[in-house]
Structure formats: structure tokens, C-alpha cells
Design a protein that fits this description.
heterodimer; A: 478 residues; alpha+beta; 13-stranded antiparallel sheet; two-stranded antiparallel sheet; 10 helices; 15 strands; 14% helix; B: 74 residues; two-stranded parallel ribbon; 2 helices; 19% helix
């Protein structure tokens, strides 16, 4: 290692390297609130056969779930508000917002303990006391349900309408219990499938919803990336380990007709957010209760997590501003402009490896990808960070999808929306190093950068909700 | 019977430590506030259609009233 390389490497090591998990624990504060930590957001024309006129939106939360994380596993936060926002007129302000709120209820399953004639009824410590099947959940001790509302206009002051089950008319939906293991849930796929609901939308159309645990769809060589990119970024795109291969996540999956989302433009922008009440008081003397009485929370909803385009709060936003980004809205994104026009990631890669970062400043190419959309494809009027989808771009059937999306000629892929099989890490690496620039501005811009962990459409189902069932907490066969 | 809440009652101002708010200004009013009263006021005014209260620039004073939040709990 020559002196220049050593100095540059040392300098880089003193910086905080960006995390390459799409948005898993990406900001200091959100590490304290995993239940409201948005990890990935997907938005794409549905490519399930027969559903071409729909858009699927997926918001994942609660990262790095060890499948064996019992006895409580990974319920969502009843005190939180989970939202998916859609801007349909290009002004960086939400026009349609889907709101999800969850309820956890303890059934208080109890057993008779002691000799006959002198027994006591004692509550069990587990969330299930026997097998759970699609037709019988009586052994389930803790149950989650949720409601869905849609807000037209401002997410706080707009017109609120309730979304109901199109078959039953119910406004409450059930979230399946996490995949405890093969003995508790001998056929998790069949069980979870009963929690895909048809929904009635306010305009008379119908869609589908599913909320539940899934195998984390994000693929990344996480450990090596955190370790000063301890890998060959020009190596085999499938030559490294996916560090999330053993992790589950919790998914909010929604499918709605295209014309429910669009308005004056065929291009829509989407992002997810989670909010908590502004104030919280801990109860020093919780009571025995079927629901939360450990805290009293109140005040206005206060946003603590935000996610549109993948990797932005990791690769782009500086450490000191990550919490601020999570609390921000797209309409105010000018405050983060320098992070896009003068990005640090290429300089870090330049320092760590014998590759040259682009020399163009401001980085107009990144402004297009991250803030305005790609001209003639999914550009919108107002610059802001959100995931943009041109809803007139026909979906590519699963078998024909290219995991590098638009830069590989598949215009239905990232960054024109995002599908589960899009390898956004490799795409992002290539774009930030100058894939869209000429050789004069990016001498190494056409190299095939990779984190070595590959993902494509074969990792997923070709039908709603697309993401695979979660890994079981107990791998033993029943 | 009202439960006695000791000094161990912890007030967590979510926004105080981490976040400003999504209102038009995140500068706060620059004044002072008593934490107990501030929190109780927030909780009393819980709503789905309001913006969070900006707190940047606000100086909080923390009382040692061990009964300040008794009325919040059953």
C-alpha cells in the first residue's frame, strides 16, 4: 500500500461508512424504535397475471428479525401510525395516504395447575399453546388486527375514509402470527394465505391487502460493507453472502387499481412513513391487562421514519442529518440538496479502492435519479426524494425482468418504481459512480460495481403478496 | 385508588431528544416550559389532525413532582 492509498484509506476509516441495508437501522434514533423502522419500500405495476391494471405498494418494517425471536416475536406497534403516501400531481405533497393502525389483544389463555380439588388458574407465558392452522387459531394467545383508512389530501387534515373488507364489510383485518416454527404452524403458507383480503375502496373499486411477517426481501452483503467495504466491488455479482438470508421482516402489502392513485399525471411518487405520539409517559406500575398500559402516549403524530427511494438515508444523507431526514417530508427536501449534488459515497469508494469517482459537480445525474425522475420516463415537476412510477409503463412479466432495471433496458424496473427483484444495491453503486455520465466526467463510470449479493425475481413469488413466507423460528420438521 | 407515582416515573419527550416537527417552523418559541405540564398538555390535546409542537429552542425545567402523572393511569 503506497502512502497516498494509506492516507486516503485512513481518512476514509475515520468517516462513518454508509450502511448498505436499504433502510435497516439507518439512523441513530430509529434504532431505539425498531417497530416503526421502515426498511424498504416497493411500488410497481402488478406483474401477477391478470392484475396488470393495479399498482402494488409494499412497506416493510421492523428489521433484522431473527426467526427464533420468541416468545413475543415481532408485533407491530399499537401506539404507532404507519402510512403509505402517494403524490399524484408532482408537487411533492401527498394526495392519497393509506393509514394502518394495529391492535394487539392478549387472549389470556390459562391452564389449571395443581392437584384436582386444589387447582389454580394460571396464565401461560407463550403466545400459543398448540398448533395453529388456517381453520383453527384457538391456540393463539396473542392476536393482532388492524384497520386501514385512506386520506385524500393532506395526511392530517384531508378527507378520511375507511377501507373495508370487500367480502364481509368488516373494517378490521387480522394479521397472521409470525412463523413461530413448524410444530406451531405446520402449514404457514396456507395459514398466511387466509390473511390476504379483498378490499373495498371509496370509489367503488377493489384491491387487496396483506400485512404479516415475510422473509426479508432485501439482499445485501451487510457485514463486509460495514467493515470498510471489505469486499471486491468489481467482483462476481453473486460471489458474496446475503447477510439478510436468515432474517424476516414485517410487510404491509397493498394492491390498488392504477386509476385510484393517479390524477393529473400518469407518474406517481410514493413513500412510507411511521409516526408516534409526541409525548410518552411510562407507567411505573403496569397492571395485568390484555393490552398496553405500560405507557400513556399522546399529542400529535410525530414522524420518526421515512422511506421512498432505497438507500437514500444510508448512502446519501450525512449521519448528523439522518434523524432529521426521517422526520422530514418530500416537499422540504431542498434542505438536503448538497448531499445529492456533492455525494460522499463516490469519494469514499475512490479512497478505498483504485477507482476514480466522478468529477462532475453538481451531480446533475443524481439529481435526476433521486430528486426529479428520469426525463421522458418518470420525471415530475417538483424536485424531491420519493419513489417515482410511470403507471403507463407496462409491467414486465416476472420471467422477463432484468434485476438491473432501467440501466439494463428494463424500463419497468428501478428507478421507475421498484420491484422486489431489482438489485438496487448494485444499481445504486453503478449510478453513484457515474453510470449515467460520460467518460470525461466519470472515468470509471462504466465498471460493474457490486456488493456481491445478488437478487432477482426468482427469489420471489409472481403473485400477490409477492414476498416469500417468513423463515420458521424452529427449523425442525413437525 | 390513585396510584402513587414515584420519581421513577419517566417522561419521555420523543421529540425532545431527537426530532423537531413537521410544522412550518422547527425553531420552537425559544421560551421555557415545565416538562410535566408540557407533556400533560400534549396528552390532553391528542388528535389525529394536528401538527406536533415545535420544541427546538425551548428550555425545559424538570420538576420532581412524583404525582404529576397520577391521573394518566388507572
Amino acid at each position: 500500500m503506497n502512502q497516498r492509498t494509506f492516507t486516503r484509506t485512513l481518512t476514509a476509516s475515520l468517516l462513518v461508512l454508509p450502511a448498505l441495508a436499504s433502510s435497516h437501522r439507518e439512523a441513530p434514533y430509529i434504532t431505539k424504535q425498531p417497530k416503526v423502522d421502515a426498511t424498504d419500500f416497493y411500488m410497481f405495476r402488478s406483474y401477477e397475471v391478470g392484475r396488470e391494471d393495479y399498482v402494488t405498494l409494499i412497506a416493510n418494517y421492523l428489521p433484522l428479525q431473527n426467526p427464533y425471536g420468541g416468545p413475543n416475536y415481532f408485533s407491530l406497534d399499537p401506539e404507532a401510525l404507519y402510512e403509505i403516501h402517494v403524490d399524484n400531481d408532482g408537487d411533492a405533497i401527498e394526495d392519497v395516504t393509506f393509514q394502518f393502525r394495529f391492535t394487539t389483544t392478549i387472549q389470556d389463555v390459562a391452564l389449571q395447575i395443581g392437584p384436582i380439588g386444589n387447582q389454580k388458574t394460571v396464565s401461560v407465558p407463550l403466545i400459543n399453546v398448540g398448533a395453529i392452522t388456517a381453520g383453527d387459531v384457538s391456540n393463539l394467545n396473542s392476536r393482532e388486527s388492524y384497520g386501514v383508512k385512506v386520506v385524500f389530501g393532506d395526511r392530517r387534515t384531508g378527507v378520511v375514509q375507511t377501507i373495508t373488507n370487500a367480502d364481509s364489510g368488516d373494517a378490521s383485518f387480522v394479521k397472521p402470527v409470525d412463523n413461530i416454527g413448524n410444530k406451531s404452524l405446520p402449514d404457514y403458507a396456507a395459514y398466511a394465505a387466509t390473511h390476504v383480503y379483498p378490499i373495498a375502496l371509496p370509489n367503488g373499486s377493489e384491491g387487496r391487502v396483506f400485512v404479516g411477517q415475510r422473509k426479508d426481501p432485501f439482499v445485501v452483503n451487510l457485514g463486509e460493507t460495514f467493515d470498510l467495504v471489505n469486499l471486491n466491488p468489481l467482483g462476481n455479482p453473486a460471489g458474496e453472502v446475503d447477510d439478510l438470508a436468515d432474517a424476516n421482516v414485517t410487510s404491509i402489502v397493498l394492491e390498488v387499481p392504477i386509476d385510484f392513485l393517479t390524477s393529473t399525471s400518469s407518474v406517481i411518487g410514493g413513500w412510507t412513513s411511521a409516526s408516534l405520539r409526541q409525548a410518552r409517559v411510562l407507567n411505573p406500575f403496569p397492571l395485568s391487562a390484555a393490552d398496553n398500559n405500560v405507557t400513556v402516549e399522546g399529542g400529535a403524530w410525530t414522524q420518526v421514519s421515512r422511506l421512498g427511494m432505497p438507500l437514500v438515508n444510508e448512502l446519501v444523507i450525512g449521519l448528523k442529518d439522518k434523524d432529521r431526514f426521517n422526520a422530514s417530508e418530500p416537499k422540504d427536501d431542498v434542505q438536503f440538496l448538497d448531499y445529492v449534488t456533492h455525494p460522499t459515497l463516490p469519494a469514499l469508494l475512490d479512497a478505498l479502492f483504485p477507482v476514480a469517482a466522478p468529477t462532475l459537480f453538481p451531480r446533475s445525474d443524481l439529481v435526476q435519479v433521486f430528486l426529479t425522475g428520469v426525463p421522458t420516463l418518470n420525471e415530475t415537476a417538483t424536485a424531491c426524494e420519493m419513489l417515482r412510477l410511470n403507471t403507463t409503463t407496462a409491467a414486465t412479466p416476472a420471467a422477463g425482468q432484468n434485476n438491473l432495471g432501467v440501466i439494463a433496458g428494463d424500463s419497468a424496473g428501478f428507478p421507475n418504481g421498484r420491484r422486489p427483484g431489482d438489485d438496487v444495491v448494485d444499481i445504486a453503486l453503478r449510478v453513484v459512480m457515474g453510470k449515467l455520465l460520460g467518460a470525461g466526467d466519470a472515468p470509471d463510470g462504466q465498471l460493474e460495481y457490486t456488493d456481491g449479493a445478488i437478487v432477482d425475481q426468482t427469489f420471489f413469488d409472481a403473485t400477490f403478496p409477492y414476498l416469500k413466507i417468513p423463515l420458521p423460528g424452529s427449523p425442525n420438521a413437525n | 385508588m390513585k396510584r402513587r407515582i414515584h420519581l421513577g416515573a419517566i417522561v419521555v419527550l420523543i421529540a425532545f431528544t431527537t426530532l423537531a416537527c413537521s410544522s412550518d417552523s422547527d425553531d420552537g418559541d425559544g421560551g421555557g416550559a415545565t416538562s410535566d405540564a408540557f407533556v400533560l398538555d400534549l396528552i390532553d390535546n391528542t388528535a389525529d389532525d394536528t401538527d406536533p409542537v415545535a420544541i427546538n429552542g425551548t428550555t425545559f425545567s424538570f420538576s420532581e413532582d412524583e404525582n404529576a402523572f397520577d391521573d394518566l393511569f388507572p
